[in-house]
């Protein structure tokens, strides 16, 4: 009978894979799940394979399998090899079933039942403990089976991203494999640590292995292992180690395999810009890139350095001097000539006072490269020459002689010929004032989407590993690129399986558009945290706020905006939110980045940042199938009675809006492509403004056709009132004075509740910081309590907020008290925060 059940489960699995619609669910679900309790291990193994496949399409129908899977896994992990003799493989009990059970658990979030979750944590700890034990056999089969369970356990720990101790232990275990004699283990360890580097709990632990990873980059024989080492260095990079990592990657670039040189160049360019302490270091790094691997420096890279130099007055002189020195090398790459031609044409006057870089010397140096360059570079140099006539009148006769030469006026290339004729005529007939007006210095570039990240994403492909994203926070650090640097507590590490969006550890495919400004450069779209003011440009607040200002209706930008769509669905046209919408929303209350939704077809990732009453959100839609999505249409809509409370400027600031006095939240959205290729992703940008306090989030409706069948789902957009929380520092005396002022019954909300998660002080602190409040030290007489303060920023008013969280470890209980100047805000914030503990 056991063999019949086993064969039936495997046959049903085969049928389901061939024709999913033929397999009825409903009454079969309980019977299939019940097979996990079977005494025959073969039946259980077949059942796990079947349930893993079925639950990807109907996860809610099979939720009951979690407790049974944990129970079965616990029995296997805690058993001795003699207990399961028929299913023990080289002293490892039931390794295949253990791996399948761990993969099944990765299809679901952490168990809600505290007992089940505690039992699962014990299992995971047992696996990690067994990994430290001496091997019971020297056979390779023993180590393979043991390591298979270990790596699947680490994948589950990463997937949950909720157990700091387990994450750190997993990182330490992987660190031991970095120097293992087996190449495959070193590769897998590097790959898993790339994902761990994105977790707020294990990032610091990953950084402790930086020397070992650098050594692997230098000494590994296998190119794939070296590539994973480069990915891990990219993932673990932050402001504290950026110079070291960039330096090592530049050094490695000189001997790197040709197949990965372009990828290394892109990563170095991204890190140098993101973590530059000053722009002189950034300029040096990019010029070194061109010198070392000029053939692999794409246009996106050197375009970007020109844009940054043009937009920053404080680095222009240094850039001109540095590029002038670089051009003096006997062998100079053409990309260096392009960069040098542009920078000297714009800012050569800043170094013209030095006799060694006088105007004639600059011109002679550039013109000596002219005949060696392609047509595109020659055209750029001709533009530099006419700029020189305006900057340095003493070079006019020499340059006119070059432009008048027959090789230019009768050039076979139309572009070069036209430039030579027009520039010669302009320099001859125009007055000095006219020439100065026409050839004046380029204004700062309007911030465009940075295509370096998109190019790196394309280079890695749709199935890219976790090293392409870096959504970590760094507290108390400045971001000279106009963005905000991440801080712990807001980063989510999604499932390691099928991460099309690269949300586990790094940047989006493209940076969002932002306005011009000398100090407003690349926006770090993954930032969520506070940034300190620096002397390198405007404060992060100024940069951020200026970015989110919508163009005025009369401006050219507004006139060029896309017209509003005619048929976007309204609240009455969409279905209700999916059952787990509230659970998914709660995941983002104390964090800004992560996977909002994922099923077998679609993955939706979120990266967002908020400052004062403004926010920007990036939604990434990933097609996990090989079939193109048709009529893809994600739309932000307003649930029920909230329709009158939300102002939505669809696609354009010119779109009609509701009366402002009734509006609470302004959302500007941008339309995305209607087709999403298999394995590809698209990005949608949302600009958000909080006008008044609000209680209900907007809805995100996603509609598309897959294989001819219409698909739709509705989620709650992770925009809650605490996102507009600005932390406020205050002394103990001020805190208690303000606490007494907010003493009216309607101003206070209090909740006493049982802890749903282990009561860890560091985790609690991280969640409170992620919630948005400032934590005040030495205020509460009880050092175990947490006290915070902040202000909810809206356009119409500011709502002060004070909070006190009192944990009782013995009773496993919390008491949370919030006082604000508005009753609905107190109650709503109290409910939001209580759900996090």
From TrEMBL:
Compartments (UniProt record): Cell membrane; Membrane, Coated pit
Phylogenetic placement of the source organism: Eukaryota, Metazoa, Chordata, Craniata, Vertebrata
Record's compositionally biased regions (Low complexity): 486-497
Residues annotated as domain Clathrin adaptor alpha/beta/gamma-adaptin appendage Ig-like subdomain: 586-718
Name assigned to this protein: Clathrin adaptor alpha/beta/gamma-adaptin appendage Ig-like subdomain domain-containing protein
Record keywords, A-Z: Cell membrane, Coated pit, Endocytosis, Membrane, Protein transport, Transport
Family label: Belongs to the adaptor complexes large subunit family.
Species, as recorded: Eschrichtius robustus (California gray whale)
Chain positions covered by the region annotation Disordered: 455-517
Membrane topology of the entry: Peripheral membrane protein
Main location class: membrane
Top-rank taxon: Eukaryota
Gene Ontology cellular component list: AP-2 adaptor complex
An example Gene Ontology molecular-function term: clathrin adaptor activity
GO biological process, one term: clathrin-dependent endocytosis
Biased composition (Pro residues): 506-515
Cross-referenced PANTHER family: ADAPTIN, ALPHA/GAMMA/EPSILON
